[in-house]
Amino acid sequence: MAGIYIHIPFCKQQCSYCDFHFSTTFQKYRERMLKAMSMELENRSDYLGNETIQTIYFGGGTPSLLTQEEIKAFLDQIHSLFDVAEDVEVSLEANPDDCDATSLQNWKSTGINRLSIGIQSFKASDLQWMNRAHTPKEAEQCVALAQSVGFDNITVDLMYGLPGLSEEEWRNHIQKVIDWGVPHVSSYCLTVEKNTLLERHVQSGELQVATDEEESRQFEILVSMLKDAGIEQYEISNFSKPGFESQHNSNYWKGVPYLGIGPSAHSFQGTSRQWNVANNSMYMKAVEEEIDYFEVEVLSPADRFNELILTGLRTIYGVSIRQLSEIQDFPKGFSENVEQLKSQGWMEEKSDRLYLTPEGRLRADFIASELFIVQG
Ligand code: SF4
Hints:
Blueprint: E1 2-8, H1 30-43, E2 53-60, H2 68-81, E3 84-94, H3 101-110, E4 114-120, H4 124-130, H5 136-148, E5 154-160, H6 167-180, E6 184-189, H7 197-203, H8 212-228, E7 232-235, E8 238-240, H9 247-254, E9 258-261, E10 266-268, E11 272-276, H10 280-289, E12 294-298, H11 301-312, E13 319-320, H12 321-327, H13 334-343, E14 347-350, E15 353-356, H14 358-361, H15 364-371
The chain binds iron/sulfur cluster.
């Protein structure tokens, strides 16, 4: 079992909060980039051994800028190089301004069976300071159109912790996606990343980010409203109706190997991870000249132990005690720390697995760090 991630490093414009890797001046080398990515796919087709591909994910950047033919070319190549499961999950991240009836129909007929729509906010003023390329109306139309062409596996991204977002507005945003009947929601708190336009807006006092209390309150509202609507939290920031959990992301959290294609894409093989250079020109040149364009990190048993705790505890699947013990002996004080976390009501233990309680999920990173192996 394994996954493939295709990173499309193009965007129409730069969202003010974003620190992902992309370029807005891609038209002049679009063809060359896609060719380099296809070469990388070919060259690294043995990275996953003979594992069956269960998930394919087009992320970015903005993969909805690709034409139907470009997406089909990647999928055809993947099918020719790998053993692909019949029920493979194929996700595409799409921005609302790229979604019309034709593009949606094309994606569907090409084999995309899961659509991830980047809505973020329904407030026009938010979308403006975010420098998003879409309007609230386009977001609404996009979801309705996607449903009308037969996409039933849809996820939407919503952000909280936005400057000036009132509790009532936040409730209205959540209610809207509940009313649409979408089966999956991903929701992240706005983070002010270094060297972004947002950081400058915040430093100049033009925008004021939410307080910790406001963020926590909005997160609690999110969890509770979605739960009441039958959309359960299965990872800290991901919520789903039964059977609509993202297989691709769930596999990341369970430690399943994946191959990442494109500039800045990460790959994971169980005992090592690697990441491609986050520079479009350097990436294309290196692939074409067959020189290295990635860095590799071999994971020590302690790294793997800590990663399993960090990712596993963020999910409802929890972390297997047996799997941890197979990687490395428990560090001194581990069992005592687990007992302490259980007595605080933050952690539960059920048939070989450790889980966080809803209370514990509010402190997931802190709890994980309490159980880490400290490396010298
Ligand atoms: S569309 Fe997505 S990847 Fe592109 S700039 Fe905006 S947030 Fe970043």
